Amino acid sequence: MPPQIRSAIASVPPYRPGKPAPSGPGGVSFKLSSNENPYPPLPGVLAATQAACERMNRYPDMANSELIVALADKHQVGEDQLAIGTGSVAVLYNLLQALAGEGDEVVYPWRSFEAYPIAVQLTGARSVQVPNGPDAGHDLEALRRAVTPATKVIMVCTPNNPTGPIVDHDRLAAFIDDVPDHIMIVIDEAYVEFGTAPNRARGLELIGPNVASLRTFSKAYGLAGFRVGYCVADPAIAGAVRAASAPFGVSLPAQAAAVASLAAEDELLHRVQELIKERDTLADGLRQLGLTVPDSQSNFVWLAAGDRTADWAQQFTAAGLMVRPFVDAPDAGLRITVGEPEANRLVLRTAAELV
């Protein structure tokens, strides 16, 4: 008899990555399906990475020491409050493994980041999905009502992936105060650098014994191919995440690239501002066409398409644009990454043919 795979693993749905860019008329091809940064590496990053590659015969620093020091200085937190992993999603997996198991519940908004159901199921815990509000943002009151004696973790994604809205800071602070202290609240801030709303949640100001913030270098910093993310948390929680992490998880070149990217934040902020301008232009242009687009505080926009989602996705593909369709009801739609200016203009020209 062959080995028996745990039922929680055997039934895990596969994570669906963004598809590669198609080839449209005249060879036009833009990948807008993975929320990647369209800019090349920040100044100094390639040189730091190359120097690190020259030491590839050595193991990476398992403690991520240089990166920990740089992040502690940037965020003005203790080094013991940080845990590094291969992307914020890996940090989330390790955090949930440390906190939840059979018989527990993890509450999170839906629709939100599609890795959440997978991460929860791998622990053996049960997902409790709470529908978003009419604005495609979180319904904090509904999240609070979903809490039961079995709840161990609540996820809050701000800005929310894939719909874009932020969570109000004061409302989130009140929500945290209202949730029992033994429940862990994880604030997923993967896209935090793109937020401009004055009332946007500031997760690092809310860190406490039962509150953690997830951050990543994949989006604003443009290191999606290197997989570096981290959490800021209470030292006990951060220590548990480190204990659950695979040894030597973050490669030597990835660590070097992250440190060099932090040193180039002036250029980073300039690029982020350009992407924000493009995002707002794209969202406004889609609304002027009569399409429903919620306020996005990220590097993507959400096009509420309903039962037209699959057809519209095919039309974008035919134009050389790979967007991300989410076809399952009741909140089907398209997530469109903000890309190069010429890609964004093509999105608007193509969208004009949808209406």
UniProtKB/TrEMBL annotation:
Residues 14-23 have a biased composition (Pro residues). Residues 9-34 are annotated as: Disordered. The modification N6-(pyridoxal phosphate)lysine is found at residue 219. The gene is hisC. Transmembrane segments: none annotated. It is an enzyme of class 2 (transferase). Keywords: Amino-acid biosynthesis, Aminotransferase, Histidine biosynthesis, Pyridoxal phosphate, Transferase. PROSITE patterns: AA_TRANSFER_CLASS_2 (PS00599). Pfam families: Aminotran_1_2 (PF00155). This is Histidinol-phosphate aminotransferase. GO terms for molecular function: histidinol-phosphate transaminase activity; pyridoxal phosphate binding. Belongs to the class-II pyridoxal-phosphate-dependent aminotransferase family. Histidinol-phosphate aminotransferase subfamily. InterPro entries: Aminotrans_II_pyridoxalP_BS (IPR001917), Aminotransferase_I/II_large (IPR004839), ArAT (IPR024892), HisP_aminotrans (IPR005861), HistidinolP_aminotransfase (IPR050106), PyrdxlP-dep_Trfase (IPR015424), PyrdxlP-dep_Trfase_major (IPR015421), PyrdxlP-dep_Trfase_small (IPR015422). Its cofactor is pyridoxal 5'-phosphate. Residues 30-345 form the Aminotransferase class I/classII large domain. NCBIfam families: hisC, PRK03321.1. Homodimer. It comes from Microlunatus soli. It catalyses: L-histidinol phosphate + 2-oxoglutarate = 3-(imidazol-4-yl)-2-oxopropyl phosphate + L-glutamate. Pathway: Amino-acid biosynthesis; L-histidine biosynthesis; L-histidine from 5-phospho-alpha-D-ribose 1-diphosphate: step 7/9. Gene3D superfamilies: Aspartate Aminotransferase, domain 1 (3.90.1150.10), Type I PLP-dependent aspartate aminotransferase-like (Major domain) (3.40.640.10). GO terms for biological process: L-histidine biosynthetic process. Its EC number is 2.6.1.9.
